[in-house]
Every structure is written in C-alpha cells, then in structure tokens.
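Catalogue entry: protein
Contents: sequence, fold tokens
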Amino acid sequence: MENIYNQLHTAEILNRIENLSPNSKPQWGKMNVAQILAHCSSFQDIAMGNSFPPRDWLGRLIGRFVKPIFYNDKPAPHNMSTIPTILILDDKDFETEKEKLKQKILTFQSNGPEKCSSHPHPFFGKFTPEQWGIGIYKHLDHHLRQFGV
C-alpha cells in the first residue's frame, strides 16, 4: 500500500499537485481546487498534531468499526462527509494553498512516524503512525483524483 512516509509515494503526490491549476474542475464534490488544497492542508495539521478537532458522537459510536476504509488499498468513496472543522467554504488563493500543502506534506514525511499525532482522528479514532501514513496518502490521492490528476 502507498504510504506518505515513503519518499517515492510523497514525490508522486507532489508531482500530481503540480499538475493542478487554478482552473481545475472537480469531478465530484462542492469545494473548488483552492478550497480542496486548504482542506488537505488542514487535514495534515490533524495528523501532525497541530489541530485537535473533537470526536463527534457518530465517530465515537461507529468510527472504530469503519476506520479500515481510511487505510486500506481501495480508493475512498466519492462524496464522503468530511470533518466539519476542515470543510473550507471561503475563497482561498490557489498558489498560496498549493505551496502550503506541499510544505506540510514534506514536513510530515521528513518528520517520520515518530512525530505523528497520537491524538485520535475526529471520526475514526486512534491510529498508529503507519495507519496515518497510509491514510494521508489515501486522502491526498482521493482529492487529486477528484480533480483528474
């Protein structure tokens, strides 16, 4: 399985981000490309331990039973609900958000598993650093596929 801790997988994701443009259109979903970049950046903050959204009641109830969808080798389903605190609704600058996300990906990858957050995912709950690495790749892949790259 792809894992963001793997330098080759990180390079592949960064190359795909470079193939985005301000005019990239989503194949599904409501956020535009700049908003998705900001969304992915906010998700990186959770995995890096820079943001701690609270667990919601539904996640507490079923999160542990469905969490393998976050770190298995199947693409994430289209139009999954997102963590409310990282749903981006305001306008964002494409270039700023692209650079911010790329830097966060590189920092996460270079920090390695030992600096990954031990705080639970707001929906799925506790993850190992390895599960975070696979899940981060999968999340980024999902949104890059959303924009055809």
Summary: Helices lie at 7-18, 33-48, 57-66, 94-111, 129-146. The mean pLDDT is 93. The first helix runs from residue 7 to 18.
